[in-house]
Design brief:
three-stranded antiparallel sheet, alpha/beta, 15 helices, homodimer, seven-stranded mixed sheet, globular, Aspartate Aminotransferase, domain 2
Chain lengths: 492, 492
């Protein structure tokens, strides 16, 4: 905990001041919700009936950003202690592996010069100026670039022309296209963090967790092919408690599959044959979620989307051990461009069917990105595991610690956001002001309003909620986030 | 042409001897067909009625492997001349970039040592022994590893930890997740080879061409969503002339989409609203194909799968310029593990819809693999384009030439296969012996028969053809192919 305070004390101070000591908090959620609504006084009860349905969350009565500040004081001590007990004094992002520095820096510089001259990789969204449109609609995790720029060779991969040309990675594995090294590093990191059980689980790799989400639907849908050909069995209902991740309905339905069909809010669902998607912490509101449906016929299945169940976003309170759990490097390490997700799957038959989906959809998953993801995950684990060669002499060369960096940034950004919201006076962050904020005119379309100020966000309507809310990505680069904050503060 | 003979003269000599001077030929097809059938005399007409329907091919009356040998003499002079006119005397796979050799070799050795010690990439299918099961069912293109092992740094990529973390590659492009460098190298290679038009086309990237195949079906299917919600418009029929690639039916139907549905052999199709898949050279039989259906209502669409339309497999006789053309590095350069395919698409609205498919399916495509594919394609183009810095002094440092390597290997392997078939006496290669071969007993299941001899192949039944045929992949590693040939020769 001391470690966390080193990085965040000043920030927490700022936050507490801006929050008036009301006990609200830290903030580890991946995105924030703003609401711009009626100046007319509303009964307080209207807030608890808000479509975000915050009180329904079983993990506690508070939204995640409030939980999270408590977390930074008490709740997550156990987990964080595990993660941080090797913390040393040097700042994480001035790390160099002492033993290799000279030679490898030369080599690295040489390589980079050569690579840069011959091949120019993209840099993502263009750099912003104070006049730019700020796009916080997508959760583009470029916030983490800063961290990885400072890790040097630790997360660099070199791929010779002849490497991993085959379709196959391990013909003895259920997931025959999974690189064994990625399998190892996924299991290692979960053991280090303690956020998910891996023993007795199959690891499957996908082109992002989106592909594995589809694979899970495919694997869990009843197999009508066993019946007569052309059997018109009804597609199974896919549900999730609102507000749900805006991509769930689109990804479920875009091919109009006869196997599964989006059926909306899990709370409004009356059937007994379903696939319930449980996103926890939830996108968009950061709530800790558990399944809300309970199948009496045994035809109900759950898929746990744990993309944000990492220490930079939320306290790790228990080792999740569900039937199907989805993760992705996009959110855990910030490497969205590598498109690597993984699933931890208990049942072998389900693992086989999910693998079959990926085989039919894309004949496996990029091995280059699998090797890169393995390297990146290894670098994260290295940050929290004492390595045998770390003697007293080299102890100052502390490896970079991703979750520390991530938490510090999230605390800082939530603090800035709250200050901006306070300065503006026309928005609220749910539960911070215990109700709707005042505004000079009715704003029924908060995303539209912000778009008029060149801030792109995602409307609550896309999450099965209310258009007076928007989701704001918290994971963009500093420059874009700073301009967003300044612009938000100036809205009156 | 002289250049080609340097590499293949000895091989051609061997082949011609084994073929008895009958004018059969070279062989550029990606896979070969074997048939083990009745010893009972069959009328010759039974061959032309064979389910492979060889004579239907409009590109000529001969199967591709026969066309190809003429090609090596005459037909492809224009194209090959273009490709080979910079050919120099040193063997292609002893190339080193003279200017960089010393320093970069050191760096490369250092890097490889480091990479190898920290991360062990997979090697694909395990190494084989004379007693192994030989799996030639999948078209795993490991044959090309030998070539890329000799290219040194030319196709090596180095990816720092912070690179291409964003979801986005170029927000101004229709295909917003396409790396601009891959776009450039795709266009450059098509211009060098002359196999497809690129001006006026959109380049789209996919996780292998399989994903783009699905994207094309999605984009070409009628948009029922414009009509009433829940509209039960019939799925559009997807057809291809038999024998067709065995994955087409499975990939089309596995999600039981309401948008498109597999409808089998294009020749047997009677409707007027369809998507016709034209695979040319065709998988499995190497035939040069054109669309066979002609829509009267304007509701017919075609997708051209040109995965094998490269000089190592077939003569490049014209610059293809169809509405949608699919390519993949799996077959063009042998990098199946990178899972990179691309589409050349004329119509902007179709390109948008295909992009939308990839967005919903996997939120883009691995940028690491895109950068690697760009580097690999650049290395191929470099082999055939004179570069400005190539003065007389460095001219002997000929860059490696992929298509030369590929052609040489294919000629060699077809020659070995024909010799083995002749030695065995129980198989035929279609049109080589003008009919069914003799065999001591009826073999209705050729794949099953070969499986009994630990040779895994893909049955003709999977291609909409006859189980007495099998497809044999020609692209495996030398050791596996050699064992296959020896084992085949010994079957009596």
């Amino acid at each position: 905990m001391a470690a966390l305070r080193v990085g965040t004390r000043a920030v927490e101070g700022r936050f507490q001041a801006s929050n008036g000591g009301g006990g609200g908090g830290g903030g580890m959620a991946p995105s924030s919700r703003l609401v711009a609504a009626h100046r007319e006084a509303k009964p307080r009860s209207s807030h608890s009936a808000a479509p975000w349905k915050l009180p329904r969350r079983r993990g506690g009565a508070m939204p995640l950003w409030r939980v999270a500040v408590f977390a930074s004081v008490a709740l997550n001590v156990a987990t964080l202690a595990l993660l941080l007990h090797h913390y040393a004094t040097s700042p994480p992002h001035h790390y160099h592996d002492a033993g290799l520095t000279t030679r490898s820096s030369d080599a690295a510089a040489h390589r980079r010069a050569r690579t840069a001259s011959s091949m120019a990789p993209s840099t993502g969204k263009p750099a912003v100026t104070t006049d730019s449109v700020i796009n916080l609609d997508h959760g583009d995790p470029t916030m983490f670039e800063e961290f990885w720029r400072e890790t040097g060779d630790a997360a660099e991969v070199v791929i010779p022309g002849w490497q991993t040309m085959s379709y196959f990675s391990d013909v003895t594995n259920v997931c025959w296209f999974l690189e064994p090294e990625l399998d190892r590093q996924v299991r290692r990191l979960h053991r280090v963090v303690g956020n998910a059980a891996v023993d007795g689980y199959h690891v499957l790799v996908g082109t992002g967790s989106t592909q594995l989400f589809m694979a899970a639907l495919y694997a869990l849908a009843p197999d009508h092919s066993a019946a007569a050909a052309g059997d018109a069995g009804e597609p199974i209902s896919v549900v999730s408690t609102a507000p749900y991740y805006s991509s769930y309905p689109a990804v479920t339905d875009f091919l109009r599959s006869g196997l599964f069909r989006w059926a909306g809010d899990a709370d409004a669902f009356g059937g007994d044959s379903y696939i319930e998607l449980v996103c926890s912490p939830n996108n968009p509101d950061g709530a800790i979620r558990e399944a809300v449906l309970d199948s009496k016929t045994g035809n109900g299945r759950t898929v746990h989307d744990l993309a944000y169940y990492w220490p930079q976003y939320t306290p790790i309170t228990k080792r999740a051990a569900h039937d199907i759990m989805l993760f992705t490097v996009s959110k855990s390490t910030g490497h969205a461009g590598t498109r690597i997700g993984w699933a931890l799957v208990k049942d072998r038959a389900i693992a086989r069917k999910m693998t079959k989906f990926v085989e039919l959809n894309t004949i496996g998953v990029s091995k280059d990105s699998q090797m890169r993801a393995a390297k990146v995950l290894a670098a994260v684990s290295d940050g929290y595991e004492r390595r045998p060669e770390q003697t007293k002499e080299t102890k100052t060369a502390t490896p970079p610690r991703l979750f520390d960096f991530g938490r510090r940034k999230m605390v800082e950004r939530w603090s800035m956001l709250r200050a901006a919201v306070a300065a503006s006076g026309i928005f609220s962050l749910p539960e911070e002001t215990s109700g709707f904020c005042n505004f000079t005119k009715d704003v029924e379309d908060c995303a539209g309003f912000l778009r008029g100020h060149k801030i792109l966000t995602r409307s609550g309507a896309q999450f099965g909620a209310d258009a007076r809310y928007v989701r704001v990505s918290m994971l963009d680069r500093d420059d874009a986030y700073d301009i967003f904050i300044n612009r938000l503060s100036s809205l009156k």
